[in-house]
Specification:
about 180 residues, mainly alpha, elongated
């Protein structure tokens, strides 16, 4: 009889716990295992290329080039004279295709934790560098948040809004010739 009561008591404890715990978990939706931020690198590149910071760097490059020529420093003027066209090639790879923009994001790295916090993500990665994700991983597009770190004007924001309707040009189809 005591064994029967003990078994019955344990059954009641387990049943009570099951009843109390089950509704709490049954009504909850499965939470994603991981929530990450993704961005379209073209949007970051376009925002940077249209930023004051970029244009100021181009003015400085031109001034350095002109100064090197005026001083007769042919080696430096040749190097600086090639930098502009190659910068254009890199911008085309980024703005029209899927080339990485890590060096551009370094310029705003202090703000990245805030972008992640605001979006509720633990990681930010280019959407072109995410060939697979498990269904338990939730993605949040942070392209516009990242682009805004470069203080875009209204025209740039309009361009960025239209970007999602355009597929990138395959990287291997872009010209690497700075004279194209």
């Amino acid at each position: 009889m005591r064994k029967g009561l003990a078994v019955m008591g344990m059954f009641l404890v387990v049943a009570t716990l099951t009843i109390r715990v089950a509704p709490a978990t049954a009504g909850q939706a499965a939470k994603p295992a991981l929530k990450i931020g993704i961005y379209d690198s073209r949007g970051v590149a376009i925002a940077y290329a249209r930023s004051t910071e970029f244009w100021e760097s181009m003015v400085k490059l031109r001034a350095d080039y002109d100064r090197a020529r005026a001083e007769g420093d042919s080696a430096l003027s040749k190097k600086l004279g090639q930098e502009g066209p190659w910068m254009q090639v890199r911008l085309h790879q980024r703005g029209f295709s899927t080339a990485g923009v890590g060096d551009l994001l370094v310029k705003v790295s202090d703000a990245l934790p805030g972008v992640a916090r605001e979006a509720g993500v633990v990681l930010i990665v280019s959407k072109w560098e995410l060939p697979y994700r498990d269904a338990s991983v939730e993605v949040v597009d942070v392209t516009l948040r990242l682009a805004k770190l470069f203080k875009p004007d209204e025209q740039t924001l309009k361009i960025l809004g239209e970007l999602k309707d355009q597929q990138p040009i395959p990287f291997d189809e872009l010209s690497l010739d700075p004279n194209d």
